[in-house]
Amino acid sequence: MAPRKIIIDTDPGQDDAFAILFALGSPEDLEVVGITTVGGNVPLSLTTKNALKVVELAGRPDVPVFAGCPAPMVKKLMTAEYVHGETGLDGAELPEPATPVQDEHAVNWMVRTIMAAREGEITVCTLGPMTNLAMAMTMEPRIVPRIREVVLMGGGFFEGGNATPAAEFNIFVDPHAAHKVFHSGVPVTMAPIDCTYTAQMTPEWLGTLRATGSRAALEAANMAEFYCQYGDHKFPTRARPIHDACVTGYLLSPNIYEQRQCYVTVDISSSETIGMTVVDWWHVTGKEKNVNVLRRIEPAPFFDLMLDRISALP
Ligand code: BDR
Ligand code: CA
């Protein structure tokens, strides 16, 4: 079978970097057609530079990177240097990218690429605020039925939120974009923090990754060690969820995830709970189910696979 074609829309972010390396280390399964960046964990200029650094780290400067929207559709941008550091990829020592960003705007490229592809050929993976995809859908609604699936990291229900008591970061930053995508009619699979918290990256696993010896593995371990410093107030050990990598894991091995089709919406109007994903787990509303919600991951096969794929990179 030909590899599945994906667009990765991202705001790197160490966990975004893991998701990208995991995908680029899996060329027989996934073809990364391009990477689009968005303002999120850090401002757009940095997320774009970081995406370029990551493709170069993977030995794949041929994967084009397109800069997208610097700010959400309606709200002001909120960033997360408190988790990811000032650069967004603190912990890794990566050279300034030699590869330039593409001239075309990410939203224009996304529309052009999806329209030019066969119907159902392209999967869009969003690892940050969903601004670029929502803008693309607004600009050219005909892309919606052409997309095979949107697989996103975002939202939370049973675990509550990590940006506010109710909202997860990616959805909180641009709830209007998430609302647009969830209600567009496109098939959506969502990896909320309820799912990502069930696959925690341990210091032992990072030691094994480092010991594989490739430069990609080494720098991934370096950045992860920085990233794992945040969260001692929440987690009893230094094990941490590696959120965005759960999207790549799902694409490669969906059977290791518990999943349920649900009606999901996003609060875009109330002051306390804006950005909350409301998941009708028990189908009490009777509304049409629009999202495949991922719940639990089997951690062992997930981490085995990620180790295998990232350590295959140079
Ligand atoms: C999400 O927020 C960002 O900080 C991470 O990169 C991830 O996409 C987790 O809530
Ligand atoms: Ca992210």
TrEMBL record:
One term of GO molecular function: purine nucleosidase activity
Keyword Hydrolase: yes
Alphabetical UniProt keywords: Glycosidase, Hydrolase
GO biological process: purine nucleoside catabolic process
Annotated ranges, domain Inosine/uridine-preferring nucleoside hydrolase: 6-303
Domain of life, per lineage: Bacteria
SUPFAM superfamilies: Nucleoside hydrolase (SSF53590)
GO cellular component: cytosol
Protein name: Purine nucleosidase
Lineage start: Bacteria, Pseudomonadati, Pseudomonadota, Alphaproteobacteria, Hyphomicrobiales
